[in-house]
Amino acid sequence: MPGEILRIQQPRHHKAKVCIWADLEISHVESLMAANGPEEIKRILSDLFKLTDYHDNLASAILLDLYFYTVQFALDHNFDKEQLSAFFSIVKKTHEVCSETPFGNVEQCYEYFKELVLCHAVKRPPWSVNQFSPHQVKLITDYVLNTYFRHMKLYKYVFTPMVRLDLSMSYLGMPPTPPPSQVAEDEKPDDLLEETEQEDMEQVGGEEENAEEEPPQDEESPAHQELRQLITSQLNGEIEKLRSSLNEQIHLNDEALQQKLTLVDGGASGGKSSRNSSKSRKK
């Protein structure tokens, strides 16, 4: 119904069970094993699962490829009839769980896939049967991980609807926001563009006039002027004190340096006179 809000399925846990002959019956498996090539296998699968429009429908073509390569993998590894049917149903049911919700459910899908494989690898009737050997379990797990789960987001993109969130908020004590006005049917887009440009020009002109008409800033009050003068005089006095102290320190340093130079010169002249007197005595 138009206007009806569809309920979107949330990710959930699924209970696995034995699925031999669930999707492919023994007659279907025999037909697939007796097929003469890939085209005939695709024809059988498209007839069984109503994917005959795969030439025009991309979703049907993608799903048919998934089914075809699943059957081809089972044939390449010499699966028997029961194993082919079980493996096909494992992949098909995993895909159904993946595509039932547009939200992320990779953990739920992988847990469901592992439980399905275990249901066909452990002899514990009636809950599970020993259909696959440990080596076949490893082959199946590696194949599904490297093909389906590696491209799971692509499958989800194709087979799940796009979710869009429309958020509306209401505040207590405030009137609701009116909906935006709709454009009249007879109003042309060119007229709307001209009106929009004219409104923008008027808005810019109004802003310029407001900028020109801004009153000058108020002058400082006498109290502020007096405070500024007091701070300036105080700072000037401190600067003069620092300057005089620095000059005095420089003068003291100069005097000390001069005294040291005088002592050095006096010591040098005394040493020369003593050497001259010692030479005269030797003569």
Question: How would you describe what is shown here?
Answer:
By secondary structure, the protein is mostly helical. It is built from 9 helices and 2 strands. The protein has helices spanning 26-33, 38-48, 58-76, 81-98, 106-119, 134-147, 152-159, 189-212, 222-282; strands at residues 121-124, 128-130. It has a two-stranded antiparallel ribbon with strand order 1-2. A hairpin with a 3-residue loop joins strand 1 and strand 2 (128-130). The longest helix has 61 residues, at 222-282. The mean pLDDT is 82.
Short recap of the structure:
The protein is mostly helical and 283 residues long. 63% of the residues lie in helices and 2% in strands. The longest helix is centred in the C-terminal third of the chain and has 61 residues, at 222-282.
Give the SSE map.
Elements: H1 26-33, H2 38-48, H3 58-76, H4 81-98, H5 106-119, E1 121-124, E2 128-130, H6 134-147, H7 152-159, H8 189-212, H9 222-282
Antiparallel strand pairs: 1-2
